[in-house]
Amino acid sequence: MERLHYHRQLPVEEGFDVVVVGGGPSGVAAAVAAGRMGCKVALIEQTGCLGGIGTSGLVNVFMPFADSQSYGIPYRSLIPRGAVNLLVAGRCISADRMVQGSIRVMPCCFITGQAAGAAVALCCEQDVAAAELDPALLQSALRSQGAYIP
Ligand SMILES: Cc1cc2nc3c(=O)[nH]c(=O)nc-3n(C[C@H](O)[C@H](O)[C@H](O)COP(=O)(O)OP(=O)(O)OC[C@H]3O[C@@H](n4cnc5c(N)ncnc54)[C@H](O)[C@@H]3O)c2cc1C
Question: Does residue 97 fall inside a structural domain?
Answer without folding.
Answer: yes
